[in-house]
Amino acid sequence: MSSEPRKAWFQEYLRDWVEVTRKETFDALTDIQRSKAMARFFAERVLGPRNPTILPFAEEDIEASVVDGKGDCGIDFISRENGVVLIIQAKYSGGKKLAKRPHEEAADLEYFRSVLGRLSDFRKIEMNQALREVSAEIDWDTDKFQLYYITLRQLAANQEHAVGLGVTPVIDIPDLADRCEMYLLDENKLNSELRDALSVEQSDPTTFRLHFAGNGESPPWINLGTTHRQCYVGRISGAQLAALFSEHKSKLFGLNIRNYIGDNGTNKTIRKTALEAADDFFFFNNGISALATHIRHDTQDPRTLLCERLAIVNGAQTVRSLHKAHATSASAARDVHVLLRLTEFGTKKTATEQEFLDNVTKYNNTQNAIKLSDFRSNDKIQLDLRRRFDALPSINGRRFLYKNKRSGEREADRTVIGMEEFVKTLYSFLFGPDDMFGGTGHVFDATQGGGYAKLFGNNDEILPTLTNEVFARYAGIWFFCAEARERWRTKSRESKDPSLERRWMFFYALGQSLRTAYAGQEPALDTTLCSLSNPSWIKQPEDGPVKKIITRHCKLAFKSLSDAYKEASRDPAFKHRNWFRAQATLAAVTEHMASSWTLLSDHATDYIFAQK
Q1: Interatomic CA distance for residues 507 and 500, integer angstroms
Q2: Helix (H, G, I), strand (E, B), or coil: what is residue 71?
Q3: What is the distance, to the nearest Å, from the Cα of residue 89 to the centroid of all Cα atoms in its chain?
Q4: Are 533 and 584 in contact (CB under 8 A)?
Q5: pLDDT (tens digit, 9 = 90+) per residue, 10-59?
Q6: Please, which residues have CB within 8 angstroms of residue 372's CB and are 6 or more apart in sequence?
Q7: What are the sequence ranges of the domains in the chain?
Q8: pLDDT at 370
Q9: What are phi and psi of 308, to 5 degrees?
Q10: SS (H, E, C) 458-514
Q11: CA distances from 269 to 144, 272, 273, 303 (A)
Q12: Residue 187, Cβ neighbours under 10 Å: how many?
């Protein structure tokens, strides 16, 4: 009897996941509901563990990413995180339907290939509100795209070829193909991908043998050890890295917060260099960094180190790209040499050792395509925010949960506040949309002049905690914007006003409306925002005193944005996308807000919250 553990099967895990998350049996769902569940399960349980930065923080944001239904443009799941747009189309088939149509429909797959053309023209295409919100946030000049078509039906050989051709070209975006990757996964591939994802969560007790390249008469590595730990730096062959990945897959990257981000332009270049310029690879590539719990010399081979619980913390792109290159040409990969830095760490879960692990992972992943918000998740101030929101009174039986870390846990009985959404909302309300200052990276930049430092810092240092007053003001801004956001959604859907595409711009206009109302009375505005930090007012009816004033400020924000947009669009050189990125737009919105308030001067007090 084999002792090998039972293999993970995609359908079986999907059924169990539905029963746990939805509290109902999989067989009770319609095929449409099953496809929705299949898309989300694939995103959360297959893609998420190997690249947690690709999915939104909060449960409600992941839920909002499921856009299947009327006006979905052939998309079941879509999210945009850190400049990467993830799009999933799931085709669930079972029982008689699968028996009747066992093969995937060529027309469905071809329609999916053209999905980016529909999204890029979203202002002219009929689509539902959830999909429209994500589409409005896409930066078509720089964003990368990962598209997955997943099916339980059988595939034809020509369908594999069609996917190999990539997405259907979009005339106005000539370099789009270079920033896109498309994957077609049938049930066999889904089984394999799931097993790979599950392996990330498993601790591997295997002893790894790392054979270093020779260095003439000198030792094969440089030992930079200290009294606390050892570190070895040397060269290793691309073929050996490819073999490691073949055997251990994504388990190798259990401590890597980024993992493989797809076969984008950078990774294609890595492969091309390995295949065409192997001698130059070492000079062009940054190398990889790895950790191991125990490192010792192999007494039988002076160029080999034996490592326990090896984990690559930076270099997933290099390793997987070399693995693909090796599949194309094994001899080329053997000629490639890669810089390796191997560091020893302790197995005891002490605070000091955990901080070391966090910092190694953090500082080895700061060069590009990384989500800076993940680096902030362990800041003391983020832990303080989590504690403070937890202490707020519950609303409708649901307590608040400030989610400073990504996780697969569901919080169905809590109102979740995602860290990234919270910080970007504050910054937009106070200073303007992050796109005008360099994007999300700026908002989570803790150095002097960075957005995170402006919100949570004092001179050159990030504060360990917020004062009671600052927390109350920030929480008040959050609850104010969260309430206003529902009005923005309704207005943008019904009016289709192009100036209302992005909520971040709306939050700035909203903040400017309040600042105009309280001009010369800034302490009173701070007091007002602090009073909104007690969320009890959320239970007011729509005609309650607080909600009525929020509605009035929303109307002023809508008008100011619309007027500023119309004025700017008269310029022959006007570009819609640039309007949301130019800081001059903030000045224009402020100017139109002032004009709107001049017309309301006789009723200004109606827009000021009563002080108690």
Answers
A1: 10
A2: coil
A3: 18
A4: no
A5: 999 999 999 988 888 888 988 888 989 999 999 999 988 777 778 887 77
A6: 440, 441, 444, 445
A7: 10-197, 203-369, 380-607
A8: 44
A9: -100, 140
A10: ECCEECCCCCHHHHHHHHHHHHHHHHHHHHHHHHHHHHCCHHHCCHHHHHHHHHHHH
A11: 16, 5, 6, 30
A12: 17
Tokens linked to 79? 């999210």
> What are the C-alpha distances in Å from 563 to residues 146, 596, 599?
37, 10, 14
Report which of 533, 528, 531, 499 is spatially closest to residue 514, judged by C-alpha positions.
Answer: 528
Residue 528, C-beta contacts closer than 8 angstroms, at least 6 positions apart: 476, 514, 518, 608, 609, 611
The angle subtended at Cα 282 by Cα 321 and Cα 82, nearest 5°, is: 45
- Rounded CA gap, 339 and 364, in Å? 14
Alpha helices (H) along 265-418: 265-276, 278-284, 316-328, 330-335, 351-363, 372-376, 380-390
DSSP state of 261: -
Q: Is 245 exposed, middle or buried (0-12, 13-18, 19+ CB in 10 A)?
A: buried
Summarised one tens digit per residue, pLDDT across range 390-437 is: 999 999 888 999 988 765 555 667 888 988 899 999 999 999 999 899
User: Which residues, in sequence order, are bridge partners of residue 395?
Assistant: 398
pLDDT at 130 over 80: yes
Whole-number Cα distances in Å, 267 to 102, 141, 270, 318, 558: 35, 19, 5, 7, 43
Q: What angle do CA 119, 177, 76 make, to 5 degrees?
A: 40
Name the amino acid, one letter, at 12.
E
Query: Reduced to 3 states, what is the DSSP secondary structure of residue 594?
Result: helix
- Which tokens in the block code for residue 210? 């790392």
DSSP three-state, residue 313: strand
Q: Helices 522-531 and 468-495 sit at what angle, rounded to 10 degrees?
A: 80
User: Which architecture characterizes domain 10-197 according to CATH?
Assistant: 3-Layer(aba) Sandwich (3.40)
Query: Cβ(12)–Cβ(36) under 8 Å?
Result: no
CB burial of 377-403 (b: ≥16 within 10 Å; e: otherwise) equals bebebbbbbbebbeebeeeeeeebbbb
* Per-residue H/E/C for 113-145: HCHHHHHHCCCCCCCCHHHHHHHHHCCCCCCEE
Work out whether the CA dihedral 602, 606, 611, 612 comes out positive or negative.
positive
Please give the full DSSP string across 444-459, using - where no structure is assigned.
Answer: T--STTSHHHHHHEET
